[in-house]
Amino acid sequence: MAEIALLREACEWAASLKLDDIPADVRHLARAQLLSMGAAAHASMRHPIGDRLRRTGFPAGAISGATGWPGDAARQALLTMALDFDETAFAGHLGHASAIPPMIVGTETGAGGAEVMVAQVAAAEVAARVTAAVTLGSARGQTATHTHAAAAVVGCGLLLGLDAERLTAALSLALAQPRRVMLPAFMATDAKFWVAAAPTLDAARCIQMARAGAVGLEGLMEAPGGLLEQLAAVPLPEVFSGWGSRWHLRTLSIKAIPGCAYLTSAVEAAASLAPVDAGEVESVEVAASVFTLAMEAESLPYINGPESPLPALGFSVGYSLATALETGSLDVDDLHGERLASSSRWELAGRVGLRHDPDLTVAALAAAAPVGAAIALAGERARAWLQARGASAEIVDRVLAEAVGDPEFENPAKRIGARVTVRLRDGRMLEAERDAARGCCQEPVAARLALAEAKYRAQAGGGAEAYVAAAGRFDSMSATELKSWHLAGAVAGAKLT
Q1: Quick one: pLDDT at residue 185?
Q2: 181 and 61 in contact (C-beta within 8 Å)?
Q3: What are the residues whose beta carbons fall under 8 Å from the beta carbon of 80, sequence distance 6 or more?
Q4: How far is CA 317 from the centre of its chain?
């Protein structure tokens, strides 16, 4: 008997999922994901980028298919993507399409909280596996558009009544033409904000096609020339397993500050040394992993003081650390206006340098997120992938030895650490280090949920406390209660047309 196709297996599981099948800790993390995404959307509306997206994201009548739930979901994805204030998992940035879009569809179709949470969790679990299967390849992290397409199809398709067969067709159609994000555009232009919004619109079209009887290919992942072959240097079809026992949401890490996750630990270390007078600083050295160094190398060509494009700014170690050293934090208001224009801050940013620390690289690569779980599965097959990215033979050997499998994600971790050394002009040195950022997946579920709640309160303003309190029972809300709760937390102006 032939083996079931990977996408068909995923969709059959998603279509059969019930609320009682989802463990309590996974439900809590689904709440954390929803609150974190809501906070990210509110944060974008506190920044001038919110108004720019209102003007340019969906000019009235300009984009076919941008009305109704597809338009609302894509608009929210624009907002959640704008400031890099999301959350991550193994594997992928799941929440842009797995959290708020199902809520939008559910409230439009009259679903209750249980149905929406099931759709959200199913979307995250399927999208995480699609992403993990090709994560040792050419497209991973935030730019992996297939993550967002898969999450939107599954989460929204379930709430729109697609059965397993039609859901499989929609998913295969959405993955048939994966978008490719070009780095210069991602770093320097508003194209970056569309990384999740465009696949969400693609997903809506594919759901509509599937409902009308369009033909897909359930074997698209594993077929010759299919997604595994096209996107993965080391294909990992074995991640399509553990349905109902391995929950990828357990690897969810919540960002406490806006910006790329690869610089957060360095910013938090620097913040612990504040306040530091910029004029007294001789130099700042950041010992970091290859993740941080590579990110800085990619963003640096686009950094131009206060004129730096917003996407690149979120990847800038120099500016982020200068801000944290001066103020003890990094907030949305540091990313525009007078604070961004501070000449002393940019002068201090110019005195920040990075140094590679092999131990930090090994720790970052071996941890389950963002890639260690894939490396552990691949074993020796991952050697060439690591070497192609510049890892020495010694580092490869250490990573392969330390990337230990954790098939049920009982002890997940994300350890992108940093060590910050500030040399003052009077000869003194200030030092701080972090082995991981706050909110990473090795922290207890309760701590990650509490961080997401605090993040929402800080960004949403009035009415946030009541919204956060009700989040604890959203999976038991009636359709009427859910719609009222969702509208209470909706971002002002999110309907951009």
Answers
A1: 94
A2: no
A3: 37, 40, 41, 44, 86, 95, 96, 100, 196
A4: 19
